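Tutorial handout. Part one gives the primary structure; part two gives the three-dimensional structure as tokens.
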Amino acid sequence: MNASQGLRVVVTGATGNVGTSVVRALSRDPAVGSVLGLARRIPGLAVPGVEWATADLSRQDGLAPLEAHLAGADAVVHLAWRFHPTRRPLVTWRSNVEGSLRLFEAVRRAGVPVLVHASSLAAYAPGPQRAPGVDEQWPTDGWPDAAYCREKAYLERVLDTFELRHPQIRVVRMRPTFQFKETSASEQRRIFAGRYLPGALIRPDLLPFLPYPQGLRFQLVHTDDAAEAFRLAVLTDVRGAFNLAADPVVDARLLGELLGVRVVPVPAAVVRGALATAWRTRTSPAPPSLFDAVRKIPLMNCARAHGELGWLPVRSGPDALRAFLRGVARGDGEDTAPMAGKQWG
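Part two.
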């Protein structure tokens, strides 16, 4: 790093929900001199201090193009991830897993000293959904029936080996829970509900009641708060994994109060059956195995992020959900291919 110029940080997957927040957080930090955002398509989004370049990690055309982007970088934040097509797991594996392997090797060959990798709560093996939650030592075996969990867990094993072989590289693994913000609404609605469900129909006041899987509890975090943790991971001399979630834990009672609707507990098997039918009839792009995973993943204890990173989320979990619902109703998005809302087609 040139002390007068500040850090040079490269961010993969920079045009998605997390990426747009991370590049903004980094660009505002005076210790960061420049940010290069990599994505499959150049966005129309303009962020002061952020340059854009194209990179498709799924392309098997050698490491030279990636190495060129990483040349001179002080840190790489790896966020690139492809959720769809959920019905073609080989495609997502080649992009998410094989693409990450190429990125890790390019980091090594380019001599980048810091790698911050976006893992996930989904990497964790099934565990207790009760306080105080599991810490970062909980097994990261994932839920093998869900491709998303399987891929996140596999990369945890890859990084175990990578760290042993290359101790000169400071590797940080961020394990956030579900991340929401207003401008992620259109992207996440398409991912989980499908392209053809109008966002205007996803309104609590249109529901006479809300069926809710019995016993389900989960955590949320606002994407901008998670992005602040990624910024801190770049700038703080830490290694290893960090759980990211905001209080309070969301359950049936809290969700009912938040949405202003009557919540009716129903057996999880009934909910899964409905989701499986929607999956088979292609009315939903989200497989029922994801619901299985959500029911089994543990609550997380975030004490390490609070103590070692100095990270404290500004917004509560319910605040993140409120922001998302506002964005869904308005069709919010950003001027990037993954996040395009009503304003950008």
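Part three, for discussion. The first strand starts at residue 7 and ends at 12. The two ends are 40 Å apart (CA to CA).
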